[in-house]
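Here is the promised in-class demo. Please do not try to memorize the tokens; focus on the logic of going from shape to residues.
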């Protein structure tokens, strides 16, 4: 889910340079891309519009109940978030979602239906699998880390992006630079996230406090209730990019491959989505979208996308 400013951008740029990749009423319908958050995001909106306008449309669909429903509904209903800068953030002035995940969902919607119409349903870490299992959503785009445990319940297409657990602290914090420094400190993370288990392994003496959402963790740091916040680097860098009182420190200390969550009982859809990902990675669409979203904060060329099916659980 996010990125940073000046010095933080440099740290994240170095970290991401080697990366092998990149719903409720909160979401609402999105028939066309646009909007954004902040000057850079707003400036990239036109670029995202053109990327989606030139994106491919499938010539035919396989025998997939999920794809048939998307086609008949004329929209992709997906689980996501509205509070992840650079990946999926809702612009209150336009009521639209923008970011790498949100716009990737629009690209898939267009590939299936011919139009980038999406309906985002807000999900929590704990609800993503259940919503896919009961078919409340067609897919999940939510900086969703692929794990073997999750893959027992749902299917994953991808990975389409790679991140890793990183550390966010208040801007004036000088005592925390590495994961080892978290031992003995109060550390926030999202409940049921992979970061909670990672902290037990890499900082066993950290005093972990669990919160439901990213914003809750961020506010805990800003208000001094915790010393640090650990989660996927992409999310944290996004937080730092829109909040000048915090920063991302050090390098990621884990590898977090993001996948698109799909219903496990529809293997034809998984193959279809993987083939689509391979196509947009090959034709440059993926790199263009990265530059127009994450790349508005991280300098340099887009990273090489990860190899589809390259991690356990994908």
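The designed amino acids, position by position:
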């Amino acid at each position: 889910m996010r990125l940073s400013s000046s010095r933080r951008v440099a740290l994240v740029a170095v970290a991401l340079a080697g990366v092998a990749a990149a719903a409720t009423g909160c979401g609402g319908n999105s028939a066309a891309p646009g909007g954004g958050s902040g000057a850079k995001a707003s400036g990239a909106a036109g670029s995202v519009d053109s990327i989606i306008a030139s994106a491919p449309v499938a010539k035919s669909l396989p025998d997939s109940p999920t794809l048939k429903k998307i086609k008949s509904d004329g929209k992709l209903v997906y689980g996501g978030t509205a509070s992840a800068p650079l990946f999926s953030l809702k612009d209150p002035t336009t009521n639209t979602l923008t970011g790498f995940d949100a716009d990737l969902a629009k690209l898939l919607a267009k590939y299936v239906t011919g139009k980038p119409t999406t309906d985002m349903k807000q999900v929590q870490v704990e609800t993503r699998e259940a919503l896919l299992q009961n078919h409340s959503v067609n897919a999940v785009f939510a900086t969703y880390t692929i794990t073997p445990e999750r893959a027992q319940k749902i299917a994953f297409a991808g990975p389409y992006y790679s991140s890793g657990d990183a550390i966010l602290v208040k801007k004036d914090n000088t005592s925390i630079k590495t994961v080892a420094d978290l031992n003995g400190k109060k550390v926030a993370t999202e409940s049921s996230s992979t970061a909670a288990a990672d902290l037990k392994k890499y900082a066993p003496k950290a005093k972990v406090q669990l919160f439901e959402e990213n914003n809750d963790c961020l506010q805990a740091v800003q208000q001094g209730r915790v010393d640090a916040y650990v989660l996927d680097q992409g999310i944290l860098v996004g937080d730092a990019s829109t909040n000048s009182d915090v920063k991302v420190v050090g390098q990621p200390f884990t590898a977090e491959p993001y996948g698109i969550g799909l219903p496990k009982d529809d293997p034809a859809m998984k193959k279809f989505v993987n083939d689509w990902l391979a196509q947009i990675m090959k034709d440059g669409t993926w790199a263009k979208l990265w530059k127009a979203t994450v790349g508005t904060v991280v300098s340099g060329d887009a990273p090489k996308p990860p190899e589809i099916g390259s991690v356990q659980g994908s």
